[in-house]
Amino acid sequence: MLLRYCGNVTCERVTALGGHDGFHARGCDNVRVEDCYLHTGDDAVAGFDNCGMVVRGCDLSSSCNAFRIGGRDILIENCHAHGPCEYVFRDRISVQAKKEGLWNPTVVPGRHTMATFFIYICDYTMPVRHQPGNIVVRNCKVENAVRLVRYNFGGDAWQFAHQLADIHFEGIEASGICLPVALNGGKAEAGDLPLEFTMSDSTISFAKPQTEVFSLANVRTFSLTNVTVSGVSAPLARVWGSPPEMKLSGIHGVSAEIAEGKGKFQCPWWK
User: Fold this and answer.
1) Around Cβ 176, how many Cβ atoms within 10 Å?
2) How many CB atoms lie within 10 A of CB 7?
3) DSSP 96
4) Could you give the CA distance from residue 192 to residue 157 in angstroms, rounded to a whole number?
């Protein structure tokens, strides 16, 4: 489902299986996606420059990302995202297989990993009307994603054009995570807008030991309140460049130590 420049859109109780993106909206206003079952061979919910978007009560499984989203005034709540996805990642199969509609993993081999629960998108393929920001993700359960959050402005495909001003996570229950939360706001000397990140009343459980919980670069403010971590002993964050303004309260299961990142900002895609 691909929508461009639409308004007052409602998508309720829709099932999407296999294929590419499940629900993808660009340049749309007042979009509501509710009680949907999206198990997809690419991103489950995607798009950017959407204003006033709500995704609520959805069951999401993706062989790419549960959310690849950018825009203004976006609310994601009460969703369950889990991997691996039963459908193969469509970008790695042949054109002929796509034409024949082959999605069955017993027919077409490929990747089934859910790469990221939330990854940012904003590129040059269309004009951006609003400063991206005020994205709230709350009361969501996340299982077996490689990363919980990936924001790597200027360093990832489709993360260009306009920086994300702020994003807020509340009441997140994440388990089976494989890599640290990656937050890179861009190059401060180039005039990029630094990021404001908050997380509260949340738990993050890693599938295997990590070097840090959060990897940070050019983040303006970084706030954690009542966050419990398992699978990492220390540090809480590794910072490249100037450290953000830190607001930490109620951190459990990990030392609040902040370490210095060496060399280039580390944000590998797969592991």
Assistant:
1) 17
2) 12
3) H
4) 17
Greatest Cα pair distance, the chain, in angstroms, is 54
What gap in Å lies between CA 259 and CA 242, rounded to an integer? 12
Q: Is the dihedral of CA 180, 183, 188, 190 positive or negative?
A: positive
> Could you give the CA distance from residue 44 to residue 23 in angstroms, rounded to a whole number?
6
Give the Cα separation of 179 and 213 in Å (integer).
Answer: 8
Q: At 136, which amino acid appears?
A: V
Cβ of 145: how many Cβ atoms within 10 Å?
Answer: 28
Burial of 261 (0-12, 13-18, 19+ CB in 10 A): middle
Cα 116-127-12 angle, rounded to 5 deg: 55
Separation of first and last alpha carbons in the chain: 30
At residue 205, the pLDDT reads: 97
**Matching residue, tokens 């403010």:** 221
Q: Residue 4: how many CA atoms within 13 Å on its side-chain side?
A: 4
The string of pLDDT tens digits covering residues 50-74 is 999 999 999 999 999 999 999 999 9
pLDDT band at 91 (very low <50, low <70, confident <90, very high): confident
* Measured distance CA(125)–CA(162) in Å, rounded: 12
